[in-house]
Amino acid sequence: MKIEPDVNRSLNGQRSNATLIDSLIQFEIFCGAAESRSSKSIDLTVLVLKKLKAYLEANKLSIDAKYVGPNEIRGFILYLKGCHRYVGHRFTPHQEKPLSPQTINCYYRALRAAWNRWVSDELVEQSPFHGLKAPKFPKKVIPCFTKAQIWDLLAAIDVSTSEGYRDYTLLVLLLDTGCRLSEVTNLRPGDIDMTRRCIKVMGKGSRERIVPIGTKVLKLLWKYIHKHRPEPPLPSYDRVFLTRYGMPLTKNRVESRMKNYGKKAGITGVRCSPHTLRHTACLFWIRNGGDIFSLQQITGHSSLDVLRGYVNLAQSDVSEVHKRCSPVDNLDIKTK
Length: 336
Known about the structure:
By secondary structure, this protein is mainly alpha-helical. The protein has helices at 5-11, 21-34, 39-58, 70-81, 101-120, 147-155, 162-177, 181-185, 215-228, 251-265, 274-287, 292-299, 305-325; strands at residues 192-193, 198-202, 208-212.
C-alpha cells in the first residue's frame, strides 16, 4: 500500500497535529504496512476513521482524538445507524438500505482496535471505548446446503468439458476442506502433496496451514492437472485453477459461475456461493462426528465462537434423529 508523504512529515517531529484524525489515518497506513497487516484490514480502519471525521465535522466537534470521549463514540454509532449502504463505493451502487448491525459492529471493533494501538504507542492517553459495549447484532441461522442441493449443484456441471471439470473439482475441493475461496484460487501446483494427501494454503493474516484432502478429491485434482489444466503463458500465472487461456481464475469468476450453476440446478432458499460451501463443510464435519478443534485447524478460523454455531446447528439435527431412534420410545415400556 502506498504511504503518503504526510506520514513521514508527521513522524519527523510534528507532534502538535499527531492526534488529528487525518494524521492518525496516515499513521494507520504506515504502521499497518510496517506490521504486514492485510490491505483489507488497513482499508477498513481508514474507512471508519474517515466516517468518524465526517461525523465530528458535521456536528462541529473536535477532530482531535484527544478530545473524543465515550459520548462522541455513542453519537457516532447512532450516526452509523442512519447511514446507507455502499455510499461512495467504487463498484457497488448506492443502496437505500441502512447499514446492517453486523457492519456497524465491525466498524466499532476496527475503531476500538485503532484506539488501543494509539494508546499503546502513547499518541493518546486513554481510549474512549473503556466501559463501552459493542453494538449487538442478531445471530442468524448459518446458511448451508442440504445433501440433495449439493447433488443437484454438482449434477448441473458439464464435466465433459475442461472448464466444467475444473469447476467440478474446485467446488468439491471447497466442500471437502472448508477453505476460503481466495485460498483455493491462489493454490499453486507445488502446494499439493499427493503422497501425504494434503494442500498448503495461505490464510488470513499471512498464516500458512496444511489442510488434508480426501481420496476422491485427490483423484479429481490429479486428473484435472494432468488432463484438463492448460499451460500458463507466464510463470507468474502458475496457479492450479486456470481459465481456458491459462490465466489465474479469479474469485469473481468462480462466484459468478457457481451462481449460474445454482440457477441451472433450481436451488432456492440458500445463497449459492463458495462461502456457503465453507459453511456446509463445517456443518457436515460436525455431523459426521468431527471435533471443533480439528475443524479449527483445517478451516483456519481464529476463534471457536463461529464453530460453536455449527455445533448448535448439528445438535438440532441430532434431536430430530433422537425422536425417530429413541431407545425407550421404540420399546414397549410402560411408564407410571
